[in-house]
Amino acid sequence: MTNAPATDLAREAFTALSPLNLEDWTALAECLRTRHVPAGGFLLQQGDICDYLGVLTRGALRTYNVDYDGTERTGWLTVAGMVSTEVLSFYSREPSLEVVEVVRDAELVFVSHADLEALCRSRPAIERLARRVSEHILTDLKGHLLSHIHDPAPERYARLVRLRPSFVEQVPLKHVASFLGIDPSTLSRIRTLEVARR
């Protein structure tokens, strides 16, 4: 079971995606757990099967892959108030190709895959919530991917500041640069130009 403030933050994030009545929320809340991980720790290692879908109630995470030449590439960032999972591994039950690292001391309120499946079988509102969470994650990921394809670096940064300013405020800039697919020095130049324009 979780502590009350963390549960309240999780409830707020989940119900923003799909409202739950008190009975459905109580059933979900009974299955929620809390995990605390200090900065530098990991929520998920490559090769593990992701068994959490939840809300980050404190801290910041980065999800990354190591490419064929050994370079770490940040694929996603998560800050407090956002849903967190490694979606491919969570739903496929396959070992993850990604690593989820804690970049600021983190608290995660989550439900396990087995508990979520059981809740979805018995409660249509929670099944709808699970679907909305998946849609939300996939929409975010697709938007980020298309931005990488279509937008030059300054526009990628401007989009990030517009949609997720907390990434820039709470995550080390080297990880923000990797997330945007640019060198840290390029990000520094873009940020300097943005400040000069104001």
Explain the overall architecture.
Strands 1, 2, 3, 4, 5 and 6 form a 6-stranded antiparallel beta sheet that branches. With 198 residues, this protein is an alpha+beta fold. It is built from 9 helices and 6 strands; from the N terminus they run ααβββββαβαααααα. The termini are far apart.
Task: Give me a quick take on this structure.
The chain has helices at residues 4-17, 22-29, 87-92, 113-122, 124-150, 153-163, 165-170, 173-180, 184-197, and strands at 33-37, 42-44, 53-66, 72-79, 83-84, 99-111. With 198 residues, the chain is α+β, with helices and mostly antiparallel strands.
Outline: globular
Strand content: 15-25%
Query: Average pLDDT value?
Result: 94
User: How many helical elements?
Assistant: 9
What is the radius of gyration computed over CA atoms, rounded to a whole number of angstroms? 17 Å
Distance between the termini: 47 Å
Written as H for each helix and E for each strand, in order along the chain, the element string is HHEEEEEHEHHHHHH
Structural class: alpha+beta
Main beta sheet strand tally, sense and closure:
6 strands, antiparallel
- The percentage helix is 40-55%
Number of strands: 6
Provide the low-confidence segments as ranges: none
